[in-house]
Amino acid sequence: MEKRIMKGNEALAEGAIRGGCRFYAGYPITPQSEILEWMSWRQKEVGGTFVQGESEIASVNMTFAARALGVRALTSTSGPGFSLYQEGIAYWVSAGVPAVAACVQRFGIGDGFISAGQDNYWQAVKGGGNGDYHLIVLAPNSVQENVDMAYESFALAEKWSHPVLILSDGTIGQMMEPCELPPFVEYDIDQEQPWAVKGVQPGKNYKVITDITYFKDLDEWNDDYLARMREISETEQRWESFEVKDADVVLVAYGISSRVAQGAVEQAREEGFKLGLIRPITLWPYPRKAFETIPDTCRGVVTVEVNMMGQMRDDVIITVKGKFPTFALATRQRIPKVDQVIEFAKAVYNGEVKEVEVF
Fold this sequence. Notes:
It contains twelve helices and 14 strands. With about 350 residues, it is α/β, with parallel strands linked by helices. The strands form three sheets. The protein has a seven-stranded mixed beta sheet, sandwiched between helices. Strand 10, helix 10 and strand 11 (about 275-280) form a beta-alpha-beta unit. Helix 1 (about 10-20) runs parallel beside helix 2.
C-alpha cells in the first residue's frame, strides 16, 4: 500500500476516491473545507465530477441525483450545514439510495463556533430528518480510519441499500498522521443496479422506474424496511474494547475523545486503578454487545464527550438497562485531558459524583 502523511479531511476525501467515488458536491464550511478542496482537483484527475453547490441544500440534492444515476457520490459538511442536509438525507433513506455523507463536527448551537466538538451525536444517530429511520453511522478516531471508513462506505451503503454517514470531528479532520492508502476500487457504473435511473444499452430490456414509496403496498414497504433495520442493528455493530473485563470503571468514548480515554486507561492501569474503555466504531447500530463483558463489580460507566450534555450517555443508559450507574464527562468545546478523565473516573469509583438527569 502507498504510505503518506496526510491531514484527516484530505485522507477522508482520498479514501472515498479510491473507494470509487466519482461525484462530489459540497459547500465550504469549517472544519471540513479541505474535503471539498481535495475533491476539487482530484475528481478531475480520476475522471469524476466536482461541484461546489450554491448551498448545502443544493449540494445534498445534487448528491442524491448523481447517486440515483448509479455514480458513487459523496457530500460533506459540518454543524449547521448538516442541519440543512436533513430533508435531503431523509429522501435518500426513503428512496433506498446508497449515498454517503460526511459530517466533520464542530461545537455550538445554531451557527455555533469553528472549534472542534462532538455535539452532532443526537442529530446523527437519532434520525435528523422526519420519519422513522436511522443512518448507518461510522465514527473514525484517526487519519487512517478516515481513509478506511470512507473507502468502505460505498460498499456498505450498497450492501444495505441505505445511506451511510461518516461522523468525524474537527480535531480528527485537522490533524496530520501517517496512513496507508488502499488500491483503487474498480467500480463499474454499468453493472446491474436495480435502483439506478440510467440509460439502457442497445439490445437490452428497458427498465421501468417507479417511485419506490408506491412500488409496494405501504405496509409491505414499512415491514421490509423495519426488517432491514433490525438486521443491520444486529449484524453491523462494531467496537473496540480495552481492559474492560476486570474494570472498576468503564469509559465510553468515540472520535478524538476515545484517544484521550485510551491514554487514561493506560496511565490509570500503571497507577493501579482498573479503568476500561469501550470505543463505539458504529454509533448506529450502537454496539450493545460490547457492554456484555462489563463485570458485575463495575462501579460506573462514564461517557467522555466534547459537548455540553453528554449526548451519548442516553444510549449507554438504554444499553446497560440500569445495571450500572452512568455518568458523562462532557468537556464542552475543549478536548479532555488524560488526568482530567482519570480524576473524574476515580470520583465515580469513590461515589463522589451523582448521576445527572438525562437531558
